Cell division ATP-binding protein FtsE
Amino acid sequence: MVRFENVGLRYGMGPEVLKDVTFGIEPNSFQFLTGPSGAGKTTLMRLLFLSLRPTRGLITLFGRDVSSLDPDEVAVIRRRIGIVFQDFRLLDHLTTYENVSLPLRILGKEEPSYRGEVSEILHWVGLGDRMHVLPPVLSGGEKQRAAIARALIGRPEFLLADEPTGNVDPTLARRLLRLFVELNKSGTSVLLATHDIALMDQFDARRLVIADGRLYVYD
Ligand SMILES: Nc1ncnc2c1ncn2[C@@H]1O[C@H](COP(=O)(O)OP(=O)(O)OP(=O)(O)O)[C@@H](O)[C@H]1O
């Protein structure tokens, strides 16, 4: 589903943040992405979401060489990917319900067709009673769960989650991890970036570790 061959990335004239990164991600797989702060986890996620292009090497996503994609093709591929950004990126003028519905509205779906589904996912992440409030009044953990619900609503084949448990207490972090594991069981590949070793220890999964710009895979 994903293949990186000798991928390197530098920002502008800076040093290479990622060097000779080679790995693959299989359909229906679950993996953690870890490494110290500043190691390049978010950078790797941005390469996978096609919001950055590599400075060298080859990235294949869903069988396509990403360097050959035009903007329309990028949009089509992105619909197959759900992403939870580290900074949530909720729209403050839309309610939680409207934020989570947004990917479906963009696809041209009518509100009555998805009302039940959005409500269900909001209950699933524990935001059933926060549906109609605006993001500025949500706590950090509630915003994070809203961002997760929005990433999941389009039933992505591949979920990228950047520190999705960074703002919640350990109990909620465990619950969210279970949610990602359930999602994986229903067929979505998951890449979950985290610093939290205690969280990773709760689920036996492949670990991708970035250190000094290189990526090491522990199966
Ligand atoms: N837009 C940018 N321009 C220049 N340098 C950048 C940019 N974004 C990130 N970097 C640098 O690239 C390196 C990797 O950053 P990145 O955000 O990918 O790390 P990270 O592993 O996600 O860190 P954290 O765990 O703290 O979120 C850092 O040295 C960072 O300063």
Remarks:
- Residues 90-150 form one domain.
